[in-house]
Amino acid sequence: MAVIIVGVLANGLVRDAAPPRLSLTPIGFDALPGWADDNAAAALPAFRRSCSRLLKESGGAPFGPIDRGVDYGRVGDWAEVCRAASAIAANDKAAARKLFEHNFVPMAVADYGDQDGLFTGYFEIGLNGSRHRHGAYQTPIYRRPPGLGLGQRYSRAQIEDGALAGRGLELFWVDDPVDAFFLQIQGSGRIHLEDGRTVRLGYDGQNGFPYVAIGRLLIERGVMARNKVTMTAIRAWMHAHPKQGAALRRENPSYVFFRIIKGDGPIGAEHVALTSERSLAVDRSYIPLGTPVWLSADEQFIPDIHVRRMVIAQDTGGAIKGPVRGDLFWGAGAGAGERAGEMDARGRYFLLFPRAAAGRLAAEEARR
Question: Where in the sequence is the domain holding 242, given as residue range(s)?
């Protein structure tokens, strides 16, 4: 089938002297790697959460408005399948697979024809904290400054040096600056307080400074080999080299603010609770939040570890940039942290378009 070119990113990034460009190629479900082996019903809770947001909008409203020339359809194109999803039993694998196959058309995604991309993982990190600064609890977790303007004046280094201190913005104090840093990388976490209670934190803004990947800096400086750089390895290195680790963290000027989350969570950029192993962070410049995605990726440095599953685009991230890039949410706890910390996979993903939207996209391409 013909490749449909639907968008160009004009942000100065260059690939073969041209900016990244999203292209979509319609394919059949039988061409999705591993489609028949996944339990599609496991993705229904995540899909229903996206539907709960979607169904509050007008049927004529665009689905996930993004400025890339992409017609992902209207809310009305998605509403019928959302209502059908609500009637499927949680463990009915056959009905879930039929739901997706009957209502959607898979679209292979590429960046200037290149379907290969990087897929990493994240999780809900746990930290030890206090509501007051004392003893080992010396690292602040800040709430978003009013209007965010104040927070956008300062880089990470300036904030760590006290630029926001004394303004009543401290939510908690934690006992590990390394974990505080990775809380910002993950975007959500749980603070285990001294009195035994646990408080959930969620992303609530960023200081506007660019994100610098510290893993890349470690590779460039010969500190770590490319095949050894994982979140787990970086955390271990920082704990073993506290002074060098502190200096390295300051080279990433991006800084994240948090808010207390009550109820289910963590909450993604779509403003719905994320689902373990079924929520995906994407670059929303290209992929609308709420889109079902078939993910097919293979670990680069761990033999025989493959990810083949239905996920829902429900979040974003500072490092998640480009048409073929994703970050898989693994949940909370030590096991989730280990899996997220090790994930460094290459692969592809396929967007699921409602049939009506896919038909309009193909008709528009035919007219060109």
Answer: 124-261
